[in-house]
Description:
Layout: H1 11-20, H2 27-37, H3 39-53, H4 57-63, H5 65-71, H6 85-112, H7 114-133, H8 138-166, H9 172-197, H10 204-210, H11 213-225, H12 230-235, H13 239-250, H14 256-270, H15 275-279, H16 285-300, H17 303-308, H18 310-316, H19 321-349, H20 351-373
Amino acid sequence: MASHLHIESQSGKGANLQREMKVKVTPYVVAVCLTAASGGTLFGYDLGISGGVSTMDDFLLKFFPSVYRKKNDARTDNYCKFDSQLLTLFTSSLYFAGLFASLFASKVTRDYGRRMSILAGGLFFLLGSVVDGLAQSLWMLLVGRIILGIGLGFTNQAVPLYLSEMSPPTLRGTLTTMFQLAIGIGGVSAFFVNYKTQDIVPWGWRLSLSLAFVPALLITIGFLLLPDSPSSLIQRGKSSEGLSVLQRIRGTDDVHEEFNYLLKATEDYKSIGNPWRNILKTEYRPQLVMAFAIPFFQQVTGINIITFYLPILIQTLGFSSNSSLYTTIILGVISLVVTTIGALCIDKYGRKRVFLLGGSIMMLFLVSLTSSIS
Length: 374
C-alpha cells in the first residue's frame, strides 16, 4: 500500500503547518504538475477512442463481422446491433487488466518511487498503442488492450499521488484536479480523432488506436527528466535528495519545517508494523469507508460507461455514425469546461462543496438520461 506523506497526512498538525507555511508557487512546480497530470490524457484518450472505433465499419468488418452485418441490417433493432460478447471483451479487457495491474503497481510505487511507476505505465502505453495499431487479428487486438490496461493500472494510481506530493499546499486541490482535467482533454481529443479518421478507408481505425502513442511518448520523456517526489525519496532513505527536490519545487532553501515534518511522517509510517491491520481498527473506520465508498459509488453510477459507449448509445437512438461522433465532441467539450470550473473552485470553496454539487448534478442528469432513453 503506497503511503501518502504529504503535509495533509495528519489532519490537525498538517492543517496548522499548511496555514503557517508561505509557499512560493514556482514555474517549475507548475510545469512538473502539468507534465504529471498529462498522464490523465492516456486514460481519457483510451476511454474515448474505443467507443468511437467500435462504430467504424472497417474496424467491425475486420474483427467483428457479425456486428458489422447486424449494424447494416435494417431488420435488426438498433439496441441489438452491438450485442456481442467479443466486442464487449475488446472494450472491457483494458479495465480488467488495469484492475489487476494496480494490485502490484502500488508496491512498485511504494518501493521504487512514483516516478518509476509512471515511467512503467508510459512504456506499457507505448507498446500497447503500437500493438493495437498494427493488429491483424482479434487476439492481437486484445493483447494490445491488455498491455494498455497494465499501463493504466500503473499511471492511474501513481499520478494523483505524485501530484499531491509535489503541489504546494495552497494549490494542492487545483493541481491534483489537473489529472481529471487531463482525462477530459484526452477524451475530447479521442472524439475529435475518431470524427476525422472515420472517413479514412480502410485504416482510419488504426490511426485512432495508434495515436495513443503520442501522449504516452510525452509522459515517458517527461518523467525521464522529472525527479521523484520528496516524500517518496525520503521514504526510501534518500533524504538529502528529497531535501534538494523540495527546495527546488518550493523555490526557496527555507523548507526545513516541511522537510522535518516529512521526516517525522516517514518515521511514523515505518513504525506501523502492519498498515492493513491498523487501517481496519475502529478509530480509522471513517477514513477506510470514505476511501473505498467514494470512488466505488462514483464508478458504479455508470457515468464512465455512458462516456465509454457514448457514440454507440447515440447511434442506437437513430443518429448516423457521423452525427454520433460529432455529438460526442460537443458533449466532451462541455465536460471539459465544467471540469475546469471545478478545478478552479476546489481550493476556494473546499472539496466537500464541489463534491456535493457535482454528485447532485450527476444524479439529476443520469435520471434524466435513463428516462429519455426508456
